[in-house]
Each structure stands twice: as structure tokens, then as C-alpha cells.
Specification:
This protein is mainly alpha-helical. The protein has 10 helices and no strands.
């Protein structure tokens, strides 16, 4: 009898890992191209492992995500040249404000942000449809970018990632494309560096406040990196049109997800 129970438990754990690894692969793929991997991975963790505290699942998700994001950032850096006057101010401001956002969320409710960012995402979705050249024209390397622009991007979206989080990678791409005139592939490369920075800041916080499920995190990390390998390769091969199309899908899914959360919280 005990052997049967142990065998059934072992099968359940293996099924859980398989589901989480598949979700992690999908998250790594999506996140490496346009951001939004949290739409796939975190819900999977919460569905498969509801018996664990939320902070533990958040910490595990961040531990897995930071690995895939780090690999994506490294791969992009080999093909997309980074301008120091843009990337360094953005990194420093993002790291600082991600910590501030994480601290603020512990004392202030973030429910009011959901309707605001759902509206912003809808505007972005419309923009990518109506503006045919959005994110498709090459960035002029001789164009001087005011230092306040990357600082604003790093500060606002670093704070947002620490405070709320969903869609940070997508917002970063849109910010680099819209404010700095980059293509989608260039914006995705820069976004990965900044998103890695904010993820590391959040991970440091979770190291003090949460725990990690290493028995699940280790295989998920492998599949997350594999997904990132495929995603970065396709982004570089297929170019801006591919990234633009996938971005629309992720933005639309994020709008639907936030809309569902708002409906459940306010009407049910």
C-alpha cells in the first residue's frame, strides 16, 4: 500500500515537472523576443503548485526567469551593438527604482495600476496596427540621444517592475522603439539588459523575503534557456516583422489577462 502511494506521488511530481518545464520553455521563448513570459510561467506555477506560499512561487519564477533573460541578453549582445550613453543610465536607474518599487508595494496597494496599464497597453496595440513604420525603421547611429530619455525609461519601468510587474519586457521594447527610434529587434536587445537588471534587483529581495523550490527550478531553468535560444534565434533571423507580430499577440493577451483580473476583483 505504501509503495503504491509512493509510486503515485512520484508520478504526480513527474507530471508537475513536465507541465512546468513546457510552460518554462514557452515563457523563455516569448520573453526572449517580446517580453511577457510571466503570462505563461507564473500562472503555471500557481496552477500546478497551489499548496506553496505565493512568495515562494514568485521567488521560484524570478529565479528561473532571470536565467533565461540573462542568456537572451548575452545572445543579443553578440549581434546588436549597445550604445553606452543609453544602456548605462538605463541600467543604473532601473536597478535603483526596481528596489524602490518593491519597497513601495509592501506599503501601498497596487490595484489601481491594473486599469491604467490595461488602457496603456490597448493604446500600444492600436499604435502598432495603425503606424505601419513603428519599430521597422533602423535607428540612426549618429543621432544624439538625450541622457534623460534612458534615465526616464529605466526609472519608470524599473519602478513598475518592482511595484507591479506584468508586461515589463513588452513596455521596455515599446519605450525604446517609441522614445529612442529603435527597431523592434534593437529595442528587444536593450529591453533584455534592463529587464535582467530589474529581475536581479527583485531576486535579491526574494533572497531575504522568500524561498525557492530548487527541485522544480533547476529543470525549469534548463527549459527556459532552451526556449530563449529558439526565441533569440528566430528574432534575429526573422527580423522586425516577426517581433512586431508576436508583440501584438502578447499585448492583446496581457490586456485580456488584466481585464479578467479587474472583472473578477470588482464585479464578483
Amino acid at each position: 500500500m505504501l509503495q503504491d502511494i509512493a509510486s503515485l506521488y512520484s508520478q504526480m511530481v513527474s507530471y508537475d515537472i513536465i507541465i512546468l518545464c513546457l510552460a518554462s520553455f514557452g515563457a523563455g521563448f516569448v520573453d526572449s523576443v517580446v517580453g511577457g513570459g510571466g503570462l505563461v510561467q507564473l500562472p503555471a506555477l500557481m496552477m500546478v503548485l497551489p499548496q506553496y506560499p505565493v512568495v515562494t512561487l514568485l521567488g521560484t519564477n524570478k529565479l528561473v526567469s532571470v536565467t533565461g533573460t540573462g542568456f537572451s541578453a548575452w545572445r543579443f549582445s553578440r549581434h546588436i551593438p549597445f550604445i553606452r550613453t543609453i544602456i548605462i543610465p538605463a541600467i543604473l536607474s532601473a536597478f535603483l527604482f526596481s528596489f524602490l518599487g518593491a519597497y513601495t508595494v509592501s506599503i501601498v496597494s497596487n490595484e489601481f495600476l491594473k486599469p491604467l496599464f490595461m488602457v496603456l497597453l490597448f493604446c500600444v496595440f492600436v499604435l502598432t496596427i495603425r503606424n505601419k513604420n513603428f519599430g521597422l525603421l533602423d535607428h540612426d547611429p549618429n543621432l544624439v540621444i538625450p541622457v534623460w530619455k534612458p534615465i526616464v525609461i529605466g526609472s519608470l519601468l524599473g519602478f513598475y517592475d518592482g511595484f507591479f510587474g506584468p508586461g515589463t519586457g513588452t513596455f521596455l521594447i515599446i519605450a525604446f522603439v517609441g522614445m529612442l527610434g529603435m527597431t523592434f529587434v534593437q529595442g528587444s536587445a536593450y529591453a533584455k539588459i534592463i529587464n535582467l537588471t530589474t529581475n536581479l534587483a527583485a531576486l535579491l529581495l526574494f533572497m531575504f523575503k522568500g524561498t525557492f523550490l530548487f527541485e522544480y527550478a533547476v529543470p525549469m531553468i534548463i527549459f527556459n534557456v532552451l526556449g530563449a535560444v529558439v526565441g533569440v534565434r528566430l528574432a534575429l533571423l526573422k527580423g522586425n516583422t516577426f517581433v512586431r507580430g508576436l508583440l501584438r499577440i502578447i499585448v492583446l493577451l496581457t490586456i485580456l489577462k488584466l481585464g479578467h483580473q479587474i472583472a473578477v476583483e470588482y464585479f464578483f
